[in-house]
């Protein structure tokens, strides 16, 4: 297989480009198998609006009180962590058939992999640095040359630590590998903290340190290229690095097997929540079923709690947009939970029509939406208006949210049922 590749690729650079593009395509495909981009829009768009508003507030309004308890060393430590990352050499175990006999190709692939890894970690760190600029500039008064000097020494220090830890992972195993990796990371943090604390304004010292770190990086790179007998370990480390995202996604998507309980711990002895028609009795069962699922209950509580500061912190216009987005997003998510309950196999034996399912779903979603809608309306109303007008706004917003959102967000879930009678 690799002998065939040697006829297709003229140099190590073309092979590296092929593997980089294949790596990103694999990451994209993994995301597509887990992430529903339609649902993600309900999270990404409000998140960008909220984040943009908060970032603007950091530049235009007084900084939050907690910022003064965040020393410069802590900010630099966070930046160093974000500039850190693994080194991906793009080795594969099958390369033992070809690349191990072609030292120039091996070196070319290793050099390209190290350069790629440094570039990726730098881009990631610079994005976080942009987010941290208000704290650096306004709280610690680091601007211009001092800011560029700080970023330069942080980047180079992270590069050295990244490459050094990659060499340790390839050379050692077990507790020695973990211990030496932690030692290198803490040494890099200690060195950077020392430079920032005593010599940040002494540009000659900082740039001399940058030069020495670049020399260390060059030495580590040459030593890495000269390492022998680590090919299989390098290939295994590369495989672990490439599947990191997949592992995280699978853990989130599959999760742990649910524990089997003979009795539910939530609403164990609850009576009927609704009385009256068959639709209300069905809604009663649906509400209990949703809240008795640990995953659904946990996510329900998390979204509710996260939404409170999301509505409270932004300025006026963004506050209203975030409030509407959260109410609609929560309503849509609750409708999807209801749809899973209504389409379960045991529900097929019950004589309920699609219209009854939808009517019961609106009642159930309305009941589940009551708590988050009231809390969001409470925060929005009392921050937008004062006194009696604020409490009146709370009442009006809550009623509107409960009356409009469940019905509005139910149509995407039930559009398939609408088509079935027509077919």
Automatic annotation (TrEMBL):
Domain of life where this protein originates: Bacteria
GO CC aspect terms: membrane
Keywords: Membrane, Transmembrane, Transmembrane helix
Pfam families on file: EcsB (PF05975)
TM stretches of this protein: 34-55, 67-89, 109-136, 142-167, 179-198, 204-221, 297-314, 320-342, 363-385, 391-414
Protein name per UniProt: ABC transporter permease
Organism field: Paenibacillus lautus (Bacillus lautus)
């Amino acid at each position: 297989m690799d002998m065939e590749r040697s006829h297709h690729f003229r140099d190590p650079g073309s092979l590296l480009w092929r593997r980089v593009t294949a790596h990103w395509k694999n990451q994209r495909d993994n995301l597509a198998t887990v992430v529903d981009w339609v649902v993600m829009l309900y999270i990404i768009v409000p998140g960008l609006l909220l984040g943009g508003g908060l970032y603007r507030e950091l530049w235009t309004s007084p900084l939050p009180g907690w910022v003064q308890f965040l020393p410069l060393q802590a900010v630099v430590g966070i930046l160093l962590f974000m500039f850190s990352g693994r080194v991906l050499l793009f080795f594969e175990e099958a390369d033992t058939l070809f690349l191990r006999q072609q030292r120039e190709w091996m070196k070319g692939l290793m050099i390209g992999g190290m350069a790629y890894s440094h570039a990726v970690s730098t881009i990631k760190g610079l994005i976080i640095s942009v987010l941290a600029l208000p704290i650096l500039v306004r709280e610690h008064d680091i601007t211009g040359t001092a800011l560029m000097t700080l970023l330069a020494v942080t980047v180079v220090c992270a590069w050295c630590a990244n490459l050094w830890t990659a060499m340790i992972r390839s050379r050692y195993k077990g507790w020695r590998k973990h211990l030496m990796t932690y030692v290198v990371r803490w040494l890099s943090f200690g060195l950077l903290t020392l430079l920032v604390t005593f010599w940040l304004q002494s540009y000659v010292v900082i740039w001399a340190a940058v030069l020495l770190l670049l020399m260390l990086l060059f030495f580590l790179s040459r030593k890495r290229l000269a390492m022998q007998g680590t090919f299989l370990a390098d290939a295994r480390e590369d495989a672990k690095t490439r599947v990191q995202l997949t592992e995280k996604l699978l853990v989130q998507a599959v999760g742990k097997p649910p524990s089997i309980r003979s009795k539910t711990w939530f609403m164990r002895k609850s009576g009927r929540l609704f009385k009256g028609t068959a639709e209300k009795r069905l809604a009663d069962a649906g509400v209990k079923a949703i809240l008795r699922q640990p995953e659904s209950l946990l996510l329900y509580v998390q979204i509710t709690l996260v939404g409170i500061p999301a509505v409270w912190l932004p300025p006026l216009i963004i506050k209203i947009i975030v409030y509407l987005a959260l109410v609609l997003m929560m309503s849509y998510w609750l409708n999807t939970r209801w749809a899973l309950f209504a389409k379960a196999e045991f529900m097929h034996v019950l004589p309920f029509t699609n219209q009854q399912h939808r009517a019961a779903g609106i009642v159930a979603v309305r009941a589940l939406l009551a708590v988050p809608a009231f809390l969001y309306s409470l925060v929005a109303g009392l921050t937008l208006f004062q006194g009696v007008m604020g409490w009146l706004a709370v009442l009006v917003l809550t009623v509107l949210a409960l009356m409009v959102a469940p019905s509005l967000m139910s149509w995407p879930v039930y559009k398939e049922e609408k088509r079935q009678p027509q077919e």
